[in-house]
Amino acid sequence: MPTHSSHNPSRILIIRPSALGDVCRSVPVLAALRSAFPAASIDWLVQDTFAPAIASHPALSRVVPFVRSRVGKVHMAAGRAELRALLGTLRSAAYDVVLDCQGLARSGVLSRITGAPLRIGHADARELAFLAYSRRVPHAPGTSEHTVDRMLELLAPLGIDPPADPDMRLHLPASLDHWPARTLGLVPGQRYALLAPTSRWPGKRWPADRFAEVARRLLDSPLGLAAIAFVGTADEQPQIAPMLELSQRDPRVINLAGKTSIAQLMALVRDASLVIANDSAAVHMAVGFSRPMVALFGPTDIRRVGPYRRDADVIQHIGPADRLDHKDTAHGRTLMERITTDEVMTRATRALAR
After folding, report:
1. Are 94 and 77 in contact (CB under 8 A)?
2. Using CB atoms within 10 A of its CB, is residue 140 exposed (0-12), middle (13-18) or buried (19+)?
3. Is 46 in a helix, a strand, or coil?
4. Where are the domains of the chain?
5. Other beta carbons within 10 Å of 88
6. Residue (of 263, 271, 287) closest to 49 by Cα position
7. What's the CA gap between 316 and 322, in Å, rounded?
8. Measured on CA atoms in the order 260, 265, 267, 272, is the torsion positive or negative?
9. Which one of 43, 169, 260, 281 has the minimum C-beta count within 10 Å?
């Protein structure tokens, strides 16, 4: 509960437009606000494509979506109309408080445009976003650098202490309760593993042939898995040719790349007995649904952006001379190739036995 009674906002806006994994791991801010202010209206400004990640959260009052592909094209009539509609929505809502959990120029500008008297953001927000805030929250030296903990620091101006056990839970509509089993052709009680073998960044990809080998070994093992499903976007399929070939030979390996919505992907993660994933949104969904997981990381600082409080589920081999730069493709691939199929199988077996 708030420690200062003077803070009792009735209309609150969270700004966290993207990306999908970041949206998923921002829900503790929403949960903490709802716990502190049960009667408040709490909205969330989010890119329309990522809105399903939070739309069913019981603590949320309203999603404020925007179509990024249009807003970014203000030189076109559709883009200007989209932007005008968004700005009108933000101004008319009369928010008391805005929390900018994104901390970039665009989110800072949107925060300022709301006209909210209390606009909270990080003092070290990038791209000069901090200029838009009426309260700039400094990061306390010596405390956790994880992005979840840093976002929770934004609650301090409202008199809310960061929760000892942040609520990471994700929520889905009841209409998806049985969707994964139906889609995979499973009967009640049958278990499956979900593999997320793709990444936007080549340096974050574990070799696709190793994913295929793990899939084969899992299905041939006595671990009781009836199926392996793998996911990705339609344009990521060239990354995972060995998985596609395996799915054509073995009907137990089911290709869902490019065939799921975000909500359906979340449902697949929620019901999986095991998730094996590169550094991607699936990792943070697995945290939000408390699923057994093996997370494969290379050029990423897991202290900041790894699966929250799930470091034990990460396989990563970093040496003193290694750089954590996911844009350095060659070095990233070197780091990812240090992960062997044997150690993934060992971790998977252990996770399935929990």
Report:
1. no
2. exposed
3. strand
4. 11-158, 174-352
5. 10
6. 263
7. 12
8. positive
9. 169
Are 11-158 and 174-352 in the same CATH fold? yes
According to CATH, the topology of domain 11-158 is Rossmann fold (3.40.50)
- C-alpha to C-alpha distance for 215 and 219, rounded to whole angstroms: 6
Q: Token pair 């969904």 is at which residue?
A: 285
Taking the C-alpha atoms of residue 184 and residue 267, their distance in angstroms, rounded to an integer, is 12
Distance CA(296)–CA(293), nearest Å, equals 10
Name residue 24's amino acid: C
Tell me which fold the domain 174-352 belongs to.
Rossmann fold (3.40.50)
User: pLDDT (tens digit, 0 to 9) for every residue of the chain, 354 residues total?
Assistant: 343 333 689 999 999 999 999 999 999 999 999 999 999 999 999 999 999 999 999 999 999 998 866 555 544 566 667 788 899 999 999 999 999 999 999 999 999 999 999 999 999 999 999 999 999 999 988 899 999 999 999 999 999 999 999 999 999 999 999 999 999 999 999 999 999 999 999 999 999 999 999 999 999 999 999 999 999 999 999 999 999 999 999 999 999 999 999 999 999 999 999 999 999 999 999 999 999 999 999 999 999 999 999 999 999 999 999 999 999 999 999 999 999 999 999 999 999 987
Per-residue tokens: 17: 């437009």
**Residue owning tokens 């739309």:** 55
Amino acid at 116: A
Distance CA 231, CA 24 (A): 17
Say if CB 354 and CB 329 are below 8 A apart.
no
With beta carbons less than 8 A apart as the criterion, state whether 14 and 7 touch. no
H or E element, residue 296: strand 293-296
Q: Two tokens at 209? A: 């042939």
Q: Which residues contact 49 (CB under 8 A, 6 or more apart)?
A: 68, 262
